[in-house]
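Section 3.1 - Work completed
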Amino acid sequence: MTFKIALNFEDGVTRFIDCNASETVADAAYRQGVNVPIDCRDGACGACKCKAESGQYELGFYIDDAMSEEEAGLGYVLTCQMHPRSDCVVNVPVSSDVCKIRQATLSASVDEVRQLSPSTISLVLQGPGIDKLAFLPGQYANLEVPGTTRTRAYSFSSMPAEGKVAFLIRNVPDGLMSGYLTERARPGDTIRLAGPIGSFYLRDVARPVLMLAGGTGLAPFLAMLDKLVAQGGSAHPVHLIYGVNTDADVVALDRLDAFKAALPNFSYEVCVVADDSAWPKKGYVTAHIEPAHLNGGEVDIYLCGPPPMVEAVAHDLRERQIEPKSFHYEKFAASV
């Protein structure tokens, strides 16, 4: 049996490898040209110590000097002694450069460009390599703007399906990518993407989840929900609060409604900052975080939005004296 192992390096680069149940993660990595840190291969030195973020595995022999029982209990592993029993995510505490990893690149073609609102553009790419594109839901890629050598970073807003993958892109006035998409993009245009990148991704759902999205920060959550549907749902509540500035900025409600129908434990609400909004919920996201959403701190919080939103939520949690079980966030700022 073969399992998929995502190796996340500390600089945000992710590399996926295939690992047979009979081999160690370190051996599988080297077999596929990934030079993870290693020295003895005997569980004696600790040079290959990493953190298993998710998945099932068994550990072979190792000595206390290499890794303590306490560390093992916290999810640390020695990749030279780690035998996977499911797909796993492993955090490698070095940069991808040290391991001589080149970021994966792929050429795809434009399938569809749609202006969902004055502030949001949907881009769908297709190509023979898309279905083999491996990334963790929530990660992003660098897209090269056609006709230039410059790139812009965008979160995947879907998991690959039928040779296609999607992005939600903020329409920035005079923006390089925005200008291309609104003025010149045509079906069949070639766009190069490099990735996956980022430590913002959906972990195993082991407790209630609160998702907080600001504007096009909705994108990674759409990919996360795609993944939950593919996995057959969640045994724990998953609640999304999606905040935007104006009524016109609200997008993708059809997808959110479809997720709500497919995932019995999923719910969402939309809030709009503008005072003249017709939406029943007004104001910032923090005004709509209820105590039940926080579950006394036994909750995993995921947040994607502009820096002021991240800071506001962190401040709000401190004010409430709530320390969530985990708090994963990604700040983004629009670039021209």
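Second construct:
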Amino acid sequence: MEPHLQHRASSFGGGVDAYAARPGYPDEAARWCLPPGARDVVDVAAGTGKLTAALLRAGVRVRAVEPDDAMRAALERDLPGVPAVRGTAEATGLPDACADAVTVGQAWHWFDAPRAAAELARVLRPGGRLAVLWNTEEPEAGTWVEAYRDLLHRDDPMAYDHVREPALGARFSPPEHATFPWVRSVTRAEVRLLAASRSYVLTMPPERREALLDEIDALWGTHPDLVGRDDAPLRYTTRCWRAVRLPAPPAAR
């Protein structure tokens, strides 16, 4: 990974408090990611447990893998029954064939894709499923969400171009795709925290970061969708891909 991307990928521990404003995942999306009869699930790059919580509601056992100590501590605090280990998608530290499903929420773009796919295929049982999910805001033209995204990403070279079908390689079936639209209500304070949780913002120089967050905060007092409101609807689409682990090719003789 290029140094500037590594810097962004490793920045989230500095924004644990802001991460609380991040959205969770719809229960129907979590269920869609799991194979029938799934019991054991590994949530990779689990962060503070946003996707982990939805998987638990689906009735499965979850192990969380998260490299950042601060993020993992928040997960252990909020979901005390979930075993959480320090590891990465490329090196989980988990046994072979220990999971019916592996999930990745909002993180595949930070991985070394070939190494991650090989490691997650190792962790999965035969016929197990790998699922990759992203939450994206849906900015209708002229809405406050469009104004918010324009401000937040006006100088961001990554923006949302990483939300695409993941490259999983020959150990997986071609991914299936599904989308799940949903809405949540957010307050002015939550919108500021939501922006502050982005890697692009976390890695800014402090003065520039505060200036941007102040601009976003000011939307609440100027945009006609927001003036006079205590909260506002924020529309999302959860975009999911799932693929089946294929049998390993026979060893060459």
